[in-house]
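Researcher: I'm preparing a figure for a lab meeting and need a structural model of a single chain. I don't have an experimental structure, so a prediction will have to do for now. The sequence is pasted below. Please return the structure as tokens so I can convert it later.
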Amino acid sequence: MIRVNDETPIEVLQDINVGNLVTDGFSKTGLVESIETTDDGLYKIYEFYLNTGRVITTRR
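Model: Understood. Here is the structure written out token by token.
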């Protein structure tokens, strides 16, 4: 299980694939169904969509 939060290294975030089990350490845990990354010019935003219907979002 991979913990995704504001302290997770970028290398770990980039290695997460569909099917990995991830958690935010609180209430969001599940298998990754899809991943979206966007760049707003200041941050790179990672959104992990889980099979539970929840989304874990982190910025770097």
